[in-house]
Specification:
Layout lengths: L1 H17 L6 H14 L3 E2 L11 E5 L2 E3 L14 E10 L2 E10 L5 H18 L8 H13 L4 E2 L5 E3 L6 E5 L16 E4 L2 E3 L5 E3 L6 E3 L5 E3 L2 E6 L2 E4 L4
Antiparallel strand pairs: 1-4, 2-4, 3-12, 4-5, 6-10, 7-8, 7-9, 9-14, 10-13, 11-12, 14-15
Helix pairs in contact: 1-2, 3-4
This protein binds 2-amino-4-trifluoromethylsulfanyl-butyric acid and cobalt (II) ion (CO).
Length: 237
């Protein structure tokens, strides 16, 4: 899983460099798949439950699971969430980043920053003996301080020899403390944060999730390993 994570992190770094006004989301997907396969890995999203591409690309008010298209051309000021998964020797990694295209508004840039920070706030609690809900509540508390909406309808997840495993990892506090964290557990922690309200809806393509109020949305995700001395981020270069 470390190797799957490392290759995924490299893929994200390369894709970030390619994000320029004028590029289509189809081209970013093509490039992402090419990079993943160049390491002898398989893009885990492709054909997952019928998803038609390797990289989920979600622009502006799209929250997650946007479908790449030749017709979707990125322009200066857009914010773009890239979400990808890699399988290396049967083991999965999953990670997402949101980037700005060219110059973006201060509001957009703050949303991206706070979403990333909320992940790091959450994983401060990813320690042996803590409970899942400690991570979830920390993410929510941090993002809500900025007046943002924490998406409820989608959650993080366990990950390993499958992309999605138990347990669910919500980005908001629940009434249950959740599972007790133990060394060796691997989780995909992935705050999805809206500039406006938390409500989302699905487009007719049955994949793309958008904010109900049209506000911008950002996503930040890493695959982490719980160790005796805290979390290790696996999806890093
Ligand atoms: N990264 C997404 C998740 O965290 C997976 C996308 S599912 C796909 O669970 F079908 F779109 F690939
Ligand atoms: Co995920």
């Amino acid at each position: 899983m470390r190797e799957a994570g490392r290759i995924l992190a490299i893929t994200h770094d390369e894709l970030e460099k390619a994000l320029k006004p004028g590029i289509s989301t189809w081209e970013i997907n093509r490039l992402g798949e090419e990079i993943i396969r160049s390491y002898g890995c398989v893009p885990s999203f492709k054909n997952y439950r019928g998803y038609p591409a390797s990289i989920c690309i979600s622009v502006n008010d799209e929250v997650v699971h946007g479908i790449p298209s030749k017709k979707r051309i990125l322009k200066e000021g857009d914010i773009v969430s890239l979400d990808a998964g890699v399988i290396y020797k049967g083991y999965h990694s999953d990670a997402a980043r949101t980037h700005g295209v060219g110059r973006i508004s201060p509001e957009a840039s703050r949303l991206i920053q706070v979403t990333k920070e909320s992940f790091f706030e959450g994983i401060k609690y990813a320690k042996t003996g803590n409970h899942l809900n400690d991570i979830s509540s920390a993410i929510q508390a941090y993002a809500e301080k900025f007046g943002y909406g924490v998406v409820r309808d989608l959650v993080g997840h366990g990950i390993g020899s499958h992309l999605h495993e138990d347990p669910e990892v919500p980005n908001f506090a629940t009434k249950k403390r959740g599972l007790k964290l133990q060394p060796g557990m691997t989780l995909a922690v992935e705050p999805m944060i809206n500039a406006g309200r938390y409500n989302v809806r699905w487009l007719d393509d049955d994949w793309t999730v958008i904010t109900e109020d049209g506000s911008l949305s950002a996503h930040y995700e890493n695959t982490i390993l719980i160790t005796e001395d805290g979390p290790e981020i696996l999806s890093k270069a």
